[in-house]
Specification:
33% of the residues lie in helices and 26% in strands. The protein has 216 residues and is of the alpha+beta class. The longest helix is centred in the first third of the chain and has 27 residues, at 2-28.
Length: 216
């Protein structure tokens, strides 16, 4: 009986020692699978907090200061086969984005009542996209010949705008500029510069040169 009790005590001691040893090993040598999962979790969180590390294609391309790209985009627009031998008319708006994108609406080459949208992205023009218009839209009032527009004027205009913005506390540079067409006349936008304490109205001539600048 005495030997049986002694054997049971030793057995329990052996199990207890093994459990303690296992606990110590797990503390100082954690399971590889658990470590990998935790590392994966941290990597995923890093991606969420820093998307730029995953996709750098969203970086700015500085179109508004790239004369060569602006010139190339205009030349390729004029060479669209559907407008071969025809005058191109811009409708309503023409947008220039510093990230390299240009959006424009053109009067349809065959049906003057229709308008198509085009996008310049990755150094090429898209296929035409039909634009839905209302019977209330006066197409003729918002048309201007592409011959009266120069894409490089967007660079001139944005440079002047940003130079003025630098002198105003809290103002930020323009990341896009655009032309709006009213009564067959060009109007460059934006037309305001807002700072922390002041706001200014700024206007430009058709060629992108400064027309007026005054505090509101």
């Amino acid at each position: 009986m005495r030997k049986l009790i002694i054997g049971m005590v030793c057995g329990l001691s052996f199990i207890s020692c093994n459990q303690i040893s296992k606990s110590i090993d797990e503390t100082f040598k954690p399971n590889d699978t658990l470590v990998n999962k935790e590392n994966k979790k941290q990597e995923d969180q890093t991606i969420i907090n820093n998307p730029a590390k995953v996709n750098s294609s969203t970086e700015k391309r500085a179109l508004l200061s790239d004369i060569n790209t602006l010139t190339k985009a205009e030349e390729e627009l004029r060479k669209l086969p559907q407008y071969n031998g025809k005058e191109i008319f811009v409708y309503s708006t023409l947008y220039f984005y510093d990230n390299g994108i240009i959006n424009v609406m053109l009067q349809h080459p065959e049906n003057p009542k229709y308008v198509d949208g085009y996008e310049y992205r990755d150094n090429k023009w898209s296929e035409p996209r039909p634009i839905q218009l209302s019977v209330k839209d006066d197409i003729r009032d918002r048309l201007i010949s592409l011959n009266k527009i120069s894409f490089v004027n967007a660079a001139k205009m944005s440079a002047l705008y940003n130079k003025k913005a630098e002198t105003i506390e809290g103002a930020v540079p323009a990341e896009n500029v655009y032309i709006a067409i009213y009564k067959n006349q060009i109007q460059w936008y934006p037309t305001t510069i807002s700072g922390s304490r002041e706001r200014y109205t700024i206007q430009f001539n058709d060629d992108g040169s400064l027309k007026s600048f005054k505090q509101d």
